[in-house]
Amino acid sequence: MSLFLHAYVQLLLVEPYLRRRDFKGLYERVRRCDMCSAAEEPNSLSKVCEAMDLACIWYWRQALCLQRSVALTCLLRRHGVAADLVIGAQQMPFRSHAWVEVDGRVVNDKSYVSEVFAVLDKC
Known about the structure:
It is a single chain. The chain has helices spanning about 5-20, 25-30, 45-60, 65-80, 115; strands spanning about 85-90, 95-100, 105, 120. It is α+β, with helices and mostly antiparallel strands. The mean pLDDT is about 95. It has five helices and four strands, in the order H-H-H-H-E-E-E-H-E. About 50% of the residues lie in helices and about 20% in strands. It has a four-stranded antiparallel beta sheet.
């Protein structure tokens, strides 16, 4: 299966959790998503991120930050990249946001997002 299809399937797998507002289940899904023991290819990170961006473009509805970040975290881990899902919030005005980091570097959002939002949790 192509990387694009894997990314699209990951978005589909996250959808039921969001519909049920089962954030605890979604969190557990990410926690259970083990990293593949296969050696990481040199371009794995960029290829997987590009595939997820493309899958989000073709997804049947708008994939918001939580769905996109959960799906990307699981997909990266399955391709041997140690990725973390990060959940953050801003006080005034109140907003929450999710993004993915690899080695402390933001990979699916603006690099300064961790300065705008206080990190609540990483998994």
